[in-house]
Write a structure and sequence with these properties.
The chain has 399 residues and is of the alpha+beta class. It has 10 helices and 17 strands. The chain has 2 domains: 90 residues, Rieske Iron-sulfur Protein, CATH 2.102.10.10; 239 residues, Naphthalene 1,2-dioxygenase Alpha Subunit, Chain A, domain 1. The strands form 3 sheets. Strands 1-10-9-4-3-2-5 form a 7-stranded antiparallel sheet, with no helix packed on it. A hairpin with a 2-residue loop joins strand 9 and strand 10. The chain binds FE2/S2 (inorganic) cluster and fe (ii) ion (FE2).
């Protein structure tokens, strides 16, 4: 679809309506999704505890790009494009590793941990390797969480840091560790995966396990009294009762969205688990369970839920036009010992069962929207946030 046709389709889009079939099936629109959104936004790459030693690295891959997230010194993390500066071979081939130098297997060019070319044989006497380095992309670490951005001049990360540091501090995520990380492949365009995350209209029909404990599934049943009770307890438990929301607003700096909001769980539930009871030790400086949970977001496609005893971080990325991935990290206190302080199966149960259901409904959605007879329908009042995301999306990719 050429640029004019894409712009016309966007201009004709009725408000508060699902996206047209072309947004899920057209290869040119997909290319714009990548260039206008994914290559310009802050994206969660992983957590500092996953690369504790100098030389530790892991790969972050999306839409045909591969980035080496590597610790080059005790306090410095780099994000290096995994493309050799000689003839372009991929350098790191496994998902993770530990190296003193990064050596390309093709002709053995060797790079320092910060990406600088260190050795290249048979290049002649005049060869100056000093100006050659693996391409670095921008990296920011927020409370131990590593965010990267492909843009040459990304939106400043400072407003995100300024807004979220204080709210997140009680969790001491900088001292947390990843107890489990899993990637769920989803046979659907990435937007269907994100759309699904942005609404809880589907929670009651699709997530009985989640809906048992989370009031977001039935906001109309949530009383002001319960809200007040939890918010005042939040403060005595050492948590922030602040709410911030700068989401899908380009004027604030593209792709540097952020939000933080705490809300009640249903009575009898103090965390997100099978029975609503704790699955790990209290995180960081939190003193007690307040009966609530937090949603927070950094960038347009990375979301998180922070319970008093664990935090789950979600990232949605495209693989190709019809494939996406949902990557989930479960974080607990850095000193929590598996088998003693927490049982991994109990810890991951809720968000694993919920994500398995999400994968199913998203894939059925993908099959439906690829039908020649699919016609976009109206959104519900429980899809306000989805519409905010969709209208931002349409504006962003409009040629
Ligand atoms: S392509 Fe890497 S050394 Fe030649
Ligand atoms: Fe869901």
């Amino acid at each position: 679809m050429d640029k004019r046709a894409i712009a016309a389709l966007i201009d004709a889009h009725p408000p508060r309506t699902a996206l047209d079939r072309a947004f899920y099936t057209d290869a040119d629109i997909y290319e714009r999704d990548i260039s206008e959104i994914y290559l310009k936004s802050w994206l969660y790459a992983g957590h500092g505890s996953e690369i504790p030693a100098v030389g530790d690295w892991f790969l972050f891959e999306l839409a045909g790009e591969s980035v080496i997230i590597i610790r080059s010194s005790e306090d410095k993390i780099h994000a290096l494009l995994n493309v050799c500066r000689h003839r372009g071979s991929k350098i790191c081939l496994e998902n993770r590793g530990r190296d003193r130098k990064l050596i390309c297997r093709y002709h053995a060019w060797a790079y320092d941990l910060d990406g600088r070319l260190r050795g290249a044989a048979h290049m002649g006497e005049d060869f100056d390797k000093s100006g050659i380095s693996l391409k670095n992309i921008h990296t920011e670490v927020l409370e131990g969480m590593i965010y990267v951005n492909f843009a040459d001049q990304p939106a400043p990360f400072k407003p995100v840091r300024d807004a979220l540091t204080e709210c997140l501090r009680p969790y001491r995520l900088d001292a947390a560790r990843v107890a489990h990380r899993q990637t769920y492949p989803i046979n659907a365009n990435w937007k269907l995966s994100v759309e699904n995350y942005t609404e809880c209209y589907h929670c009651v029909p699709s997530h009985p396990e989640y809906s048992r404990g989370h009031s977001l599934a039935k906001p109309e049943a949530r009383s002001a009294k319960l809200m007040q009770e939890v918010m005042s307890r939040a403060l005595t438990c050492g948590l922030s009762d602040k709410a911030v929301n700068r989401i899908y607003l380009d004027s604030e700096g593209f792709g540097a969205d952020y939000a933080y909001e705490r809300y009640p769980l249903w009575r009898g539930h103090i965390t997100g688990s099978e029975d609503g009871q704790p699955v790990a030790p209290l995180m960081g400086d939190i003193k007690d369970y307040d009966g609530g949970t937090t949603d927070f977001q950094v960038g347009p496609v990375c979301f998180a839920l922070a319970y008093c005893d664990y935090v789950v971080i979600y990232r949605f990325t495209p693989v190709s036009l019809h494939k996406s991935e949902c990557d989930i990290s479960w974080l607990v206190n850095g000193d929590a010992v598996e088998g003693e302080d927490f049982d991994k199966d109990r810890l991951v149960w809720l968000w694993d069962v919920t994500t398995a259901a999400d994968k199913r409904i998203i894939e059925y959605n993908a099959e439906g929207v690829s039908s020649r007879y699919y016609e976009p329908g109206p959104l519900s009042e429980m899809e306000d946030y989805t519409w905010k995301y969709l209208s931002w999306y349409l504006q962003t990719i409009r040629p």
